Amino acid sequence: MALLKEPVQEIKTLQNYIGGEWVDSQSELADVTDPARCKPIARVPISTNDEVNSAIEAARLAFPEWRRTTPLTRSRLLFNLKELMEENFEKISRIQTQEHGKTIDESRGETRRGIENVEVACGIPTLLQGEYSEDVASGIDEWVIPSPLGVFGIISPFNFPWMIPLWSAPYAVATGNCIIIKPSSEVPLTQDFLGQLVEEAGFPPGVWNIVHGGRTVVNGLLDHPDIAGITFVGSTPTGRDVVYRRCGESGKRVLAQCGAKNFMTVMPDCDVDRTVAAMMTSFFGNAGQRCLAAANCVVAGADEAFYDMFVDKVVAAASNIRVGCGLDESTQMGPLRDASKKERVLGYIEQGLKDGARILLDGRSPEVAGGYPDTCFLGATVLEDVVPDSPVGSEEIFGPVMSIMRAGDLEEAIQITNANPFGNGHSIFTSSGANARNFQYNIESGNVGINIGIVAPMAFFPFSGMKDSFFGTLHTQGKEAIRFFTNSKVVIQRWF
Amino acid sequence: MRIHTSSEGVTLAKNLEIESAQFYEEMAKQHPEVADAFRAFASENQKNARHIERTYYSVITDAIESGYCLNLESDDFTFDATIQAFGTHEPAVTQATQIEQCILSFYTTAEAQMGALMADLTRAFGQQAKKRRKRLLTLSELLQPDASSAK
Hints:
The structure holds 2 protein chains of 2 kinds. Chain A is an alpha/beta fold. Chain A has 17 helices and 23 strands. Chain A has helices at 49-68, 71-87, 89-100, 104-121, 124-127, 163-166, 169-174, 189-201, 215-223, 236-250, 272-284, 304-319, 339-354, 391-394, 410-419, 433-442, 478-484, and strands at residues 12-13, 16-18, 21-23, 29-34, 39-45, 131-137, 140-148, 151-155, 178-182, 208-210, 227-233, 253-257, 262-266, 294-300, 358-361, 381-384, 401-407, 422-423, 425-429, 447-450, 466-467, 470-471, 486-494. In chain A, the strands form 6 sheets. A 7-stranded mixed beta sheet of chain A has the order 15-16-17-14-13-19-20, with helices on both faces. A 6-stranded mixed beta sheet of chain A has the order 10-9-8-11-12-22, sandwiched between helices. Chain A has a 3-stranded mixed beta sheet with strand order 1-5-4, covered by helices on one side. The longest helix of chain A is centred in the N-terminal third of the chain and has 20 residues, at 49-68. Chain B has helices at residues 6-30, 35-59, 90-114, 119-142; strands at 2-3, 72-73. Chain B is elongated. In chain B, 42% of the residues are buried.
């Protein structure tokens, strides 16, 4: 099958998109590298505080007119954007693969998921309808109007360069707000291309801004009084201790979708072959760099024959995973985003072995198809006898490592899972409705999978999360995002 | 070559449709007795390729098992699309039958392997398999005596 052509052929220095203009940054530049080939493909500015402030000012100035733009007009611009996204679907996907490393199937999936959020936001004329009650008392009417707040900051991580900003951005602008997106400086090209589509779609200047960079940009968004709120997706320490805390202190709205340690409970009555396939996607898809990736496999029950058979199948399937460049259609797992992330994962594997885990499949020195440098590549690793509260068993590794644990029964599996501080995407694989309902009822997880390995909600549902996986009240996507980006203005009316 | 991912499966499906479409177009020129049927097949194959691609792009997400949904040997699904001018239409129809059986085998095998893992794409492959079974019936009718320029 094909090695697809790289969409980025020349090294480009990215610009910020501020007030409808593409602006050269005056700041230092960092390299953006293709992790499969280990070569630079772009340079990204690490923008200054002044540059963030100018974007916020542009958004603030654009807000009054954008607020007065009818929801129907805003919807039509989103339809334009959706059309451009569809026309450029393959290019968008290949850019993601080139800068992130994920496989082309994974990138196309990400492109589709991002577009779905735009599709939902296109329904804003209906979604933004308030509620009206006539004669709450005789001659007195009352209604509630969802109204925009102003300017929002959207801070996004490296693992889904296209999709994650789109969990927020379409809803923010659809509801009449203006935004500043800070993409990850590791994977900025996709958002740069999205900015071009936004411009082509006809959004007025200042409504949708992009400022590249790092900590300075984040701090600028967190500290500026004209920022009404922040959506953040990233690690729990940053989300909880920096973003959520500082927004609370300054009165900004905030939602912080953070880290995870997802448990997959496997019951002996599961469909084994389909469960194994689902596990490959869940544990090793995106090279494990996903807040919905499964990390721990809890095999429930005392049936030793089932356990041995099941683990053998899992290890066999994982050992056959083809590791290589994501633009090769036959690749099943791409590289980690960069060498430092690979080193971090290796550290966890070594720690796990020191803590008594047995290694059933060693992915530390994988065979990489296509002759690419192995700098950022890992293969699938499977550990057995992992203790749930050990570092490997309890902390987010963010790499292609499966830790297998045992539980006496479903109740114990649920207890083990709930003891973990995270609550993002836990799953059960079973053919019993009773088991499934018990799991769904008792598990502490924002997203729950029943025979589903990656519990990614569709755009018209909230992307939920609990415990140390989420800080805030309302989540991204769907109707909760609409509520996050609007105030409820209640009007009570009487005429004399 | 072993294929495992949905991207590979979709590429293979499209190649099968397009290569067989080219066969039908060329054979229609050689055999006017079955030209109408063959041109219709060619046109339908182009639509099939677009339908498969559109379905894939509509359903693909990282939440389905796109990287692990197949275990096929692509060499098992090759066919002879050599264009020859036969004296009568029967050998052309026989060759077409073999092509369709190959394509049917691909779709049924891929559909069974993907099962519930690939949602709409599995269904699309099943729909194509159903079309191929109908087409095989049409081809067998073309081999009947007095069956010329069939629909």
